[in-house]
Amino acid sequence: MESLSVFIGGRAGDGIDQASLLIGKLLNQFGYYIYIYRDYPSLIRGGHTFSIVRAAQARIGAHRQTVDVLLALNQDCLDKHKDKRHSRTIVVYDSDVVKSDGLGIPLTSMVKEAGGPEIMRNTAMLGALAKVLGLPWEKFEAIARANLKKETELNIALARKGYSAADIFYKIEAQNKPPLPILTGNEALALGLSAAGLDAYVAYPMTPSSTILHFLAEHADELKLKVIHPESEIAVIMMALGFAYAGRRAAVGTSGGGFCLMTEGLSFAGMAELPVVIVLGQRPGPSTGLPTYSSQTELLFALWSGQGEFSRLIVAPGDAEEAYYWSGVALRLAWKYQLPAIILTDKNVAEGTYNFDPKEIKQLPEESLDLWSGSGEYLRYQETASGVSPLAFPGEPGRVVKINSYEHEENGTTTEDRPLTKKMQEKRLRKGIALIKEIEGLEAVKVYGRKEAKTAVVCWGSGKHLCVEATEKLDVRVVMPLVLSPLPLVQLRRALEGTHQIIIVEDNATAQLAQLLKLGGIKVDAVILTYDGRPETVEQLEEKIARGVR
Amino acid sequence: MESLSVFIGGRAGDGIDQASLLIGKLLNQFGYYIYIYRDYPSLIRGGHTFSIVRAAQARIGAHRQTVDVLLALNQDCLDKHKDKRHSRTIVVYDSDVVKSDGLGIPLTSMVKEAGGPEIMRNTAMLGALAKVLGLPWEKFEAIARANLKKETELNIALARKGYSAADIFYKIEAQNKPPLPILTGNEALALGLSAAGLDAYVAYPMTPSSTILHFLAEHADELKLKVIHPESEIAVIMMALGFAYAGRRAAVGTSGGGFCLMTEGLSFAGMAELPVVIVLGQRPGPSTGLPTYSSQTELLFALWSGQGEFSRLIVAPGDAEEAYYWSGVALRLAWKYQLPAIILTDKNVAEGTYNFDPKEIKQLPEESLDLWSGSGEYLRYQETASGVSPLAFPGEPGRVVKINSYEHEENGTTTEDRPLTKKMQEKRLRKGIALIKEIEGLEAVKVYGRKEAKTAVVCWGSGKHLCVEATEKLDVRVVMPLVLSPLPLVQLRRALEGTHQIIIVEDNATAQLAQLLKLGGIKVDAVILTYDGRPETVEQLEEKIARGVR
Amino acid sequence: MNEGQTPILWCPGCGNFAVLNVMREVLTELQAEGVPLEQVVLAAGIGQHAKIVDYLKVNSFYALHGRAVAAAEGIKLANPRLKVIVFVGDGDSYGEGLEHLIFAAKRNIDLTVVVHNNRVYALTTGQYTPTSPLGYKGRSTPEGTHEHPLNPLELLLAAGATYLARGYNAKTEQLKLLLKEAILHPGFALIDLLQVCVTFYNQYDHYNQRGYELTGHNHADYNEALSKIKEWDYNSDARIALGKFYQVERPTFDSFFRGDNKVDREPVIKKLFERMV
Amino acid sequence: MNEGQTPILWCPGCGNFAVLNVMREVLTELQAEGVPLEQVVLAAGIGQHAKIVDYLKVNSFYALHGRAVAAAEGIKLANPRLKVIVFVGDGDSYGEGLEHLIFAAKRNIDLTVVVHNNRVYALTTGQYTPTSPLGYKGRSTPEGTHEHPLNPLELLLAAGATYLARGYNAKTEQLKLLLKEAILHPGFALIDLLQVCVTFYNQYDHYNQRGYELTGHNHADYNEALSKIKEWDYNSDARIALGKFYQVERPTFDSFFRGDNKVDREPVIKKLFERMV
Ligand SMILES: Cc1ncc(C[n+]2csc(CCOP(=O)(O)OP(=O)(O)O)c2C)c(N)n1
Ligand SMILES: Cc1ncc(C[n+]2csc(CCOP(=O)(O)OP(=O)(O)O)c2C)c(N)n1
Ligand code: SF4
Ligand code: SF4
Ligand SMILES: [Mg+2]
Ligand SMILES: [Mg+2]
Q1: pLDDT by residue (tens digit) across D167-179?
Q2: Mean pLDDT along residues A125-152
Q3: Contact C106/D147, CB-based, under 8 Å?
Q4: Is the distance from the beta carbon of residue C195 to the nearest atom of ligand 1 less than 6 Å?
Q5: Domain residue extents for chain B
Q6: For labelling, which of A473, B163, D87, D236 has a CA lying 20 to 30 Å from the CA of C277?
Q7: Burial of D7 by CB count in 10 Å (0-12 exposed, 13-18 middle, 19+ buried)?
Q8: Which chains touch D (3 or more CB pairs under 8 A)?
Q9: For the whole model, what pTM was predicted?
Q10: How many domains, in total, are found in chain C?
Q11: Domain Pyruvate flavodoxin/ferredoxin oxidoreductase pyrimidine binding spans what residues (chains A, B) (predicted)?
Q12: Is C226 in the pocket of ligand 3 (CB under 6 A)?
């Protein structure tokens, strides 16, 4: 099969999340690329939640209009998702609670008979799915055993029942590719930071960034990381800056509301030249908004937040693989240039699940801190051509390390002197110039699709896979900047060379990337905007783009 | 005399501030326009502080390279301000502690003899100034008596001594204009808000906005205002939003660091459609920066702060008169459109002292709240063509008023529904469209200088008077937008019609207004930027502009 | 008072259901006793607790995580006739927004704060909060916390609260009395409400065993209140007193801001301008 | 330790001079006793108090108004060998940043916090703070405040601080002893330092009259500490105890984060990837 989509839905608390990951792992064994989209409301039990697991031969990160298998644990899966069925979609449902055509299995009674908790309906459902997909039982059992660590025997028994009750509808064939690690954007991001030398992760929970905290807390011991969850986001950013001062690399993670509370610390990082990485996971706002859905509304806020003017790095990965690599870049460059770096994710990337081959990840830029030589008086803010002052940390003899939120002398003491103010402001902004050069040396803009096409679709973050797939049949190139500040204009212009039309696709209502490009002198011809929290399907976007292409 | 500049300087704690206000009031009596610039460090006693009091026949709000009288209470006044003297500048100095040419008066001994505290040196100095300016003693005494409410007799006696010890150098002639109220930008702003119907002012002290709090607290009783100083800026904005919900008009004031802490509340105001006025006084950053100096660095931050997308009003007055009028407009329109309004001041406007004729102030836009009719179920977020929903407040029977930081239904209860999310987002943004129309109906862009000139200098805030005066001799028009969001593009384009060159002048390092104009499709040819916290002199700017004009 | 249409989104068995039901009764009774319902405003933070305002057809201010108390203060100061009741979470108001709580108590502003203290961040899936016990294993502390819990009542007593009680969602009759009493208390009243989260920290057995009703207690006595408050530190296996610990009267902050701003500003401003000449 | 070049920008007579001088001595003595100066980090808020870090040639972190304590926690957790001393103001840390103080005490993280409690916002020209007395007339409350002061020591005792003392800038010998003791205390130590602001709230006479040295006090006893702490509530005309109120030992938060991250991450991450297949 070229590709396969499996939908699984139920109420929050039905274990949809775990089940969909297991489906992903199953399909992963056959050498497919996997993408799982999770749609869940802001509550713990009840409501309606679903996942779509997609397997394909190419890298993916979007979902299509219809699914091939629809696993229904409740009636909503049918009533709310009629449009997800094509003529041959197999519906598998719990016939005890759902009315439908297709393959009904009495999951509730099965589980009750076996004496299992209701949540085990999904194991029985997975067994049924295995059969539907034509998997040999042994293959399925092996994977299920490896992943169902609690009550394994009961689970396996229930899966077996589901398997027996179902029929074969599809035939999965193994691709010529080994199974790959399968992980969320947030997990990849966490590992990327770790690989780049993170010492501490400090965070207050907030969707869609909480799972970074959970993941790193879980693995803190193995990774030898300090993971701290303090009283508020203000404490978070200040602690992280304390880490930086002491020479330890810290990252923090939050969403818009928490980021607001960090902006004073962000500005402080700019003035004090303390490196810090901030993961800003976007979700629809304003304010509390839709906590568990996705948006791309914080680009301009991230760019100009914090009083005063200072350089910052903003990267926006488009899938797990990019999250891994670019979070590493962000950490390395934050330290090299002693400035704050923001990793702008959106819920779709943060909580989307992907697989990728770690061996294919690009090498991180070299660790290249400009460390103090140790001779003479240490000047924390020494003037240099690049604006970057040699680093030293407190704790060792022969140096006094003073950082300051006021304007300051080279040695870090407060000043209100007029020429010095100007000089220091220029020193700090000079780092931004150096950073642009650095960024232009990386692959900061990617081009997909027909590279010679006259129409370019420009997108960012989770828009990438969606646009790439939506334009497969169109005479369009897809341009995706991975760095949004400083904007890699040389690469962008190169990527756009020869286009007659630029169409922007983003998940917001005010076309923020379009505005940024405009500031960079790039003329935008049209924008395609969505702002209802959900990703479009490939087909929906394809139609809009096709209509727009001149 | 056309115009006159008096410099007075000493250490912080020498009473320079009060003394300069008295000088201003003195000159005010003769029918001049007055502008006082205050330059002081971030400390209470010591350091070096000075004021320049200027009187002129035209409206002013800038200072020139040189002064006519230099009153020196310490040696720094001479050592640090050599460039402020022209060939006929009269230096009056305390000969007990300062070495200089000019008119030395033993102020310290005079005060000691009279048994007064050291700070009374400045009264004696003022007496001397009165003589220098050729004022009859009686005239001076009357004004001094009206303003020196403590230890009046001792003060008058000391002033008399200073008067006697000095000589006449200038001759002030009364202009044909009555004396005008003389007040700071912040005081004018506070009164403008009061005039427009403010019910409460909530603030945590922060330079350069603290004096709004002080002024309104002082006059709370007369104005029947509730003035509250809570534990933090977070509490400030939340309390203000509580006031708005209850139907009472609240404003808050802060500077960049405090504003950071308010951004979460700002975004909440956007979502919940709660009106609030935020005074954001700009000073050099990033971070604590230079607390007592000036900048224009928060324009883009103000514009995009807070997660999510929502409309906001941003006005930026250029002197006390505009502060009075535009703060009133801000309050009225915040309520009319149920959104946050930001009054962007800079330290030079906020703490600069001006006089103006209250009778000349334009009429505020009518109070025109769209109040709920009272029939049917009350829907706080009712869909309407303009996006503005009828207002009602809790406390009266027959209505249930629910506001919400989550995305919500028309009645205010939480929703995660997809079409509703889109609809509500559009409703909120629609208010911004209506607001543009409203703004275009006001005089939101001012044009000064030679209105037909081919070169336009575009500036904002305290840049206005500086640019107007600096271009007096040049073939240049000065264009000043008073509203920065939504940008009054129709008026701006009209104001720029026929120009061949646009030069931006602002107090920041990244040309923020220029970026904003660029987003509005206006091409900027050159920028003149300062970012050392101090205003330029008219002559310095004149030279830069003259060099730039094509 | 129920919206009817709005589906209730708590887990089956959640302690919040009882709070909602009790609150309905309280409002009905208060109304019968002469507190007009339209003068009641409910404020809420963000968390499972906060959903209660969606389920009651009463004026409400659904605020930010940690910030409901400050907003409620604004509402009360704006219109002191309103009865403002604030539903907050333990993460919400003993964590993120603790400062507002302490200052509201310091001011003795007339609010009723109901803390749904389930001792977890429930809505964000069960991380530890300031009242989770030492060693609590949540998703941010899988090895167990290294922090002793705060005793919020001790802290608020020190801060100046004039009414302090502890309720339990399973003792609905008592809870109803406490809620009414707190709402009618003229000053800052706080109920630390042991609200069981069955999903992330099911303490029903523990509270049922250890909880006891506070009787014969002199709630006007600071020291006695303190000693009862300190009996259980949210960590030890001690008895858990349920009831009113403390109640005294002090002038309220809002009482200094009564009266609405009914003055013709124009002449006042004119006079001020004249003084500035 | 003095920069020499940096002019000192406090008013003549300001209590901060004494604090600076005592601090110099303390650092010199500690150094002599084996605490290497390079392992000392001074953190500060924003306010008059904070300028002290400009005047000492020692590692320093000049932070934000209200946020020094949180930053100091990060420094300590990053490198537990550092001795972190935090100079904060009363507006700064009993007001804007109170929450951080309470949580640092709760965690019993090994910090020394010195609160220059002049009971005014001095740098912003004398507004009331959380410890100004009821009725204090500052520029934001010209008619006098309507709020009782907080008793910060009572609050911090409730929060879990393990060392609490009150100093006075005019009692320099005692202050020196307290500072040294607090710095050497393994855990969260706080000195409420009555630092007189001669310009905005000159309390020299009052403190000189009312202040007395705490002797014969059992500082290991919570109740005794509390009763001494409550003797003066920052409002009444009571005697003002100066000295150490409380000291006990509890495991510190930072002790759970010792050890630096010295592991080769590559193989660990590889293994994690494998587990994710
Ligand atoms: C500033 C901010 N930080 C974080 C969050 C995410 N958040 C929402 S609810 C919640 C925890 C709620 O815990 P609690 O207050 O105890 O309420 P419960 O769900 O337990 O009732 C958090 C951290 C947020 N909404 N805002
Ligand atoms: C977020 C923020 N709000 C307000 C300020 C302005 N500010 C600077 S110092 C200060 C008051 C300081 O008072 P305190 O902490 O008591 O220190 P003191 O000057 O009395 O030593 C304030 C309000 C600020 N810098 N940052
Ligand atoms: S997660 Fe806990 S608090 Fe939330 S609804 Fe479920 S049981 Fe109640
Ligand atoms: S204002 Fe007060 S605290 Fe500040 S330096 Fe002067 S006396 Fe000291
Ligand atoms: Mg909770
Ligand atoms: Mg103070």
Answers
A1: 999 999 999 999 9
A2: 93
A3: yes
A4: no
A5: 3-165, 182-360, 445-548
A6: B163
A7: exposed
A8: A, B, C
A9: 0.98
A10: 1
A11: 194-419
A12: no
pLDDT at B366: 81
The residue of chain B with its CA nearest to that of C47 is B406
Whether A182-360 and A3-165 are alike in CATH topology: the answer is no
Q: D24 is in which domain, residue-wise?
A: 16-251
Report residue B176's pLDDT band, with 50, 70 and 90 as the boundaries: confident
Interchain CB distance below 8 Å, B270 and A289 = no
* B407 → chain A, closest CA residue: A289
Q: Which atom of ligand 2 is nearest to the CA of B258?
A: 1
- Cα distance from N-terminal residue to C-terminal residue, chain A: 34
Chain C partners within 8 Å of D251 (Cβ): 146
Q: Is residue D127 part of a domain?
A: yes
Task: Give me the mean pLDDT over the C146-163 stretch.
Answer: 98
Give domain B3-165's CATH superfamily. Answer: Pyruvate-ferredoxin oxidoreductase, PFOR, domain III (3.40.920.10)
CB spacing of D61 vs A403 below 8 angstroms: yes
From 3.40.30.10, 3.40.47.40, 1.10.10.10, 3.40.50.970, which CATH number describes the B182-360 domain? Answer: 3.40.50.970
Report the gap between the CA of B237 and the closest CA in chain D (Å): 14
Taking the C-alpha atoms of residue B253 and residue B211, their distance in angstroms, rounded to an integer, is: 10
For domain A445-548, give the CATH number.
3.40.50.920
For chain B, first and last CA: distance in Å?
Answer: 34
CB contact under 8 A, A223 and D100: no
- Contact D46 CB / ligand 2 (< 6 Å): yes
Q: Is residue C209 part of a domain?
A: yes
Q: Which of D46, D59, D271 sits opposite A394 (nearest CB)?
A: D59
The reported pLDDT for the residue numbered C5 is 66
Query: A287, C130: Cβ pair inside 8 Å?
Result: no
Query: Ligand 3 atom closest to Cα of A45?
Result: 6
Residue nearest to atom 11 of ligand 2 (CA): D121
Euclidean distance between CA atoms C243 and A14, whole angstroms: 38
Q: Where are the beta strands (DSSP E) in D204-248?
A: 211-213, 240-247
Taking ligand 6, which is a single-atom ion, which protein residues have CB atoms under 5 Å away? Answer: D 89-91, 118
Give the CATH number for residue C160.
Answer: 3.40.50.970
Greatest CA span in chain C, whole angstroms? 74
Burial class (CB in 10 A: 0-12, 13-18, 19+), B278: buried
Cβ-based contacts of D50 with chain A (< 8 Å) = none
Using CA atoms, how far apart are residues A465 and A478, in angstroms rounded to an integer? 10
Disruptive mutation site among A238, A353, A364, A372 for chain D (greatest number of D CBs within 10 Å): A238
Assess if residue D33 is contained within a domain: yes
| DSSP of chain C | ---SSSPP-SPTT-THHHHHHHHHHHHHHHHHTT--GGGEEEEE-SSGGGGGGGGS-S-EEE--TTTHHHHHHHHHHH-TTSEEEEEEEHIIIIIITHHHHHHHHHHT-S-EEEEEE-SSBTTTT-B--TTSPTT--BTTBTT----PPP-HHHHHHHHT-SEEEEEETT-HHHHHHHHHHHHHSSS-EEEEEE--BTTTB--HHHHHHHEEE--S--TT-HHHHHHHHTT--SSSS--EEEEEEEE-----SGGGG-S-----HHHHHHHHHHHT-
Could you read off the pLDDT of C113-130 as tens digits, one per residue? Answer: 999 999 999 999 999 999
Q: Do B229 and D140 touch (CB under 8 A)?
A: yes
Ligand nearest, relative to CA of residue B13: 4
d(CA A243, CA B84): 47
